[in-house]
Amino acid sequence: MKALIVDNEEDVIQSLRLLIGQYCSDLEIVGEARSCQAAKLWLQAHEVDVVFLDIELGDGTGLELLQNVPSRDFEVVFITAHSHYAVQAFQFSAIDYLLKPFDPERLQEAVDRARIGIQQSAKLQQLEVLVENLQSNKLPRRLVLRDMDNIHLFEVENLLYAVAEGSYTRLFFKEEREWLSSKNLKYFEGVLKHGPFFRTHQSYLVNLNHVLRFERTEGGSLVLRTGQQIPVAVRRQKLLVEQLMRLQ
Questions:
Q1: Per the CB 3.0–4.6 Å rule, which of 35, 144, 206, 209 could disulfide with 161?
Q2: What pTM was computed for the model?
C-alpha cells in the first residue's frame, strides 16, 4: 500500500516514518506534506491508499483538507494530540486515529484496518459523524459501529442498554436491533458518559431515558418501556435514584 503523511512537524513525520519502516513493512511512504495546500496539490497529482493526517495544520485543519479534495478514495488515519473529548468523537465515528506519541501496536491496528478497506459511501458517513461530534463536547447523536465488511450507524438515543459478555459488549437498540462489539463495557461507559447512561451493575449499562420504573423488590431492578428488566446492584441504588431525579 502507498501512504502519504500530512503533518506540519518534521519530528512527527520522521517518527511515523521510522515506526512504519519497523512495524509495517508492506506500507510504502510515497509522499509528505506539511500544510493543507501542499497536501491538496499532492493528492490531486498522485494516487494513494492511506493518508496519515494531522488535525491541526498551519494553514487549516485536516478536516478542511478532506472537504476540499474532490476524490477521497483512500483510507484516513488521523494523527492527533487532541483532548479526551475529541478522542471520543473519533471513537463514535469509528475513524481510526493515532495519539502522539505513537504506539506501535495501535499503528499496526490502523494499518490493518486500512488494508481491509471500506466503501467510499461509508467513509463519507464516518467523516460526517466525526465532524458533527468534534463540534460538540456533549453526547454525540450517532454511533458508528464497524465489522470486517460494513459500517453501521446507530442513533445513540435508540440504545436501550448494554451488557458485558466477557471482554465483549452486546448492545441492545429499539426495534429489536442488537450488536456484539469487541470493546468491553468500560469502553462504552466512558464513551457515553455525557449522556443519560448509568452503570447499574457490573455487567449492565442502561439508558435512563428508556426507564419506565425502578422496582426495589427482589434486590432492585429497572423496568424499561420495552419490558426488559435490568438488575441494579444494592451499592448503586442510591446514586441511581439521584440520577433518575435529575432527568427532565
A1: 206
A2: 0.52
Cis bond leading into 101, ω under 30°?
A: yes
Domain annotation covers residue 150: no
| Residues 110 and 189 placed together within one structural domain of the fold | no
Q: Can you state the angle between helices 120-134 and 84-93, rounded to 10 degrees?
A: 150
d(CA 7, CA 4): 10
For residue 235, give the nearest of 245, 223, 222, 220 by alpha carbon.
220
Nearest to 174 by CA among 207, 205, 132, 200: 207
Give the pLDDT confidence of 67-94 residue by residue, as tens digits: 787 666 788 888 888 655 466 556 545 4
Report how many domains make up the chain.
2
Helices 10-23 and 104-116, interaxial angle, to 10°?
A: 70
Distance, CA of 215 to CA of 225 (rounded, Å):
13
For residues 63 and 130, give the distance between their C-alpha atoms in angstroms, rounded to a whole number: 9
Residue 151 domain-assigned (yes or no) = no
More confident residue, 58 or 223: 223
User: Which CATH number is 122's domain given?
Assistant: 3.40.50.2300
Domain that includes residue 166, residue range: 158-246
Q: Are residues 129 and 185 in the same domain?
A: no
Query: What gap in Å lies between CA 170 and CA 156, rounded to an integer?
Result: 14
Confidence of residue 207 (pLDDT cuts 50, 70, 90): very high
